[in-house]
C-alpha cells in the first residue's frame, strides 16, 4: 500500500511511516506532490530512513531526488494524465507510471481513462503502466488488465476504508456521493482537481477569474482552513466547505470496508469477470 502524504509536514510523514511499520513488515510507499520540490528534498531522507520501498509523485517527475531515492533502492513512479508526461517519465528513469484518467479524484487531467490507459500502454515500452481513475472494484481491475495495464491504483476506494486516516466525515461523503457529485475545479489548490462539489466550490466556480494559480490558491485554502483531508485534516471537516478529493467512481462505493476486505473483494470480482469473459473467447 501507499501513504498519501500530500500536505503533511516532514515529521508528520515520519510519524505516519512509523505507525505503518508498527502494524506490518510488508513493503509500502509514500505519495507526495513533486510540484513542491523544497518539501520533497526535506522528506527524501525521512522516506529513506524510515524504510519506504517506493515513492509516487503527483504533479511532475521528482528529478531533484530521483538519483538519491534510486541509490537507496527505492522504486519511483509518477501519476500521469497525458501520454506526453508518461513518456517523459520513462525517459527520466522512472520505474513505472500511473496512468490516471480524468475520472480520478484529486489533481487530474482532461483525458478519460478508457482513452488514456491503452495509449500510455502503447507509448511506454520499458516500464510497467498502472491504471488509475475511478477504479473501485474488480470490474475496474479486469478492465485495466484488458487495456494492457499491469496493475491498478485505487485512491477513492481506500479513502473509504476503515483504516484510512481520512476521518469519518470524509468516508461518509464518499459513501453518500452519487455519480454526478464531483467536479473538476482549481479553487482549492490552483491546479485542476476533482473533488466533491459543495457550496464552497460552487461559489468559486461562479467567479473563476478570482482563482489564483498554484501555489497562491493553495496557500489561501490553508489560511481558510478548507484543504480538508488532502491537507492532513481529520477532525473539524465541513461537508459544505472542505476539500474532499474523490473520483467519479465514488458513486459506486456504498459502504466502508476494511482494507483487507476491499482487496479480497476486488480480486474475487476480477477473477469472476475474467472467468465469465472466457466464454467469448
In short:
The chain folds into 2 domains: 2-160, Aldolase class I (TIM Barrel, Alpha-Beta Barrel), CATH 3.20.20; 168-252, no CATH class.
Q: Give the CA-based shape.
A: globular
Main pleated sheet = 7 strands, parallel
| Helicity level | 25-40%
Return the domain count.
Answer: 2
Mean pLDDT: 95
Q: Unreliable stretches, pLDDT < 50, 5 or more residues?
A: none
**How many E strands?**
10
Q: Give the N-terminus to C-terminus distance in angstroms.
A: 34 Å
From the 3D coordinates, which CATH architecture of the largest domain would you assign?
Alpha-Beta Barrel
The total of helices stands at 11
Order of helices and strands: EHEHEHEHEEHEHEHHEEHHH
Strand content: 5-15%
Label the structural class: alpha/beta
CATH fold-type name of the largest domain: TIM Barrel
CATH class assignment of the largest domain? Alpha Beta
Which radius of gyration do the C-alpha atoms yield? 18 Å
Going across the major beta sheet, what is the strand order?
1-2-3-4-5-7-8
Q: What is the CATH superfamily label of the largest domain? A: Aldolase class I
Amino acid at each position: 500500500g501507499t501513504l498519501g502524504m500530500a500536505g503533511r509536514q516532514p515529521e508528520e510523514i515520519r510519524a505516519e511511516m512509523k505507525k505503518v511499520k508498527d502494524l506490518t513488515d510488508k513493503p509500502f510507499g509514500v505519495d507526495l506532490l513533486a510540484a513542491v520540490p523544497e518539501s520533497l528534498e526535506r522528506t527524501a531522507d525521512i522516506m529513506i530512513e524510515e524504510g519506504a520501498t517506493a515513492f509516487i509523485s503527483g504533479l511532475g517527475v521528482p528529478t531533484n531526488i530521483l538519483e538519491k531515492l534510486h541509490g537507496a533502492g527505492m522504486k519511483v513512479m509518477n501519476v500521469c494524465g497525458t501520454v506526453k508526461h508518461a513518456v517523459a517519465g520513462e525517459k527520466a528513469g522512472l520505474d513505472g507510471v500511473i496512468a490516471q484518467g480524468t475520472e480520478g479524484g484529486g489533481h487530474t487531467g482532461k483525458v478519460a481513462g478508457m482513452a488514456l490507459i491503452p495509449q500510455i500502454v502503447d507509448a511506454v515500452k520499458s516500464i510497467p503502466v498502472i491504471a488509475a481513475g475511478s477504479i473501485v472494484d474488480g470490474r475496474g481491475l479486469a478492465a485495466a488488465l484488458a487495456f494492457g495495464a499491469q496493475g491498478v491504483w485505487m485512491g477513492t476506494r481506500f479513502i473509504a476504508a476503515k483504516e484510512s486516516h481520512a476521518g469519518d466525515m470524509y468516508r461518509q461523503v464518499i459513501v453518500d456521493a452519487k455519480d454526478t457529485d464531483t467536479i473538476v475545479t482549481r479553487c482549492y489548490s490552483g491546479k485542476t482537481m476533482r473533488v466533491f462539489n459543495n457550496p464552497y466550490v460552487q461559489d468559486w466556480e461562479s467567479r473563476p477569474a478570482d482563482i489564483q494559480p498554484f501555489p497562491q490558491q493553495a496557500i489561501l485554502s490553508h489560511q481558510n482552513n478548507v484543504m480538508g483531508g488532502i491537507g492532513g485534516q481529520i477532525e473539524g471537516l465541513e461537508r459544505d466547505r472542505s476539500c474532499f478529493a474523490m473520483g467519479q467512481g465514488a458513486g459506486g462505493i456504498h459502504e466502508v470496508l476494511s482494507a483487507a476486505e476491499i482487496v479480497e473483494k476486488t480480486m474475487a470480482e476480477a477473477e469472476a469477470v475474467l472467468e465469465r469473459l472466457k466464454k467469448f473467447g
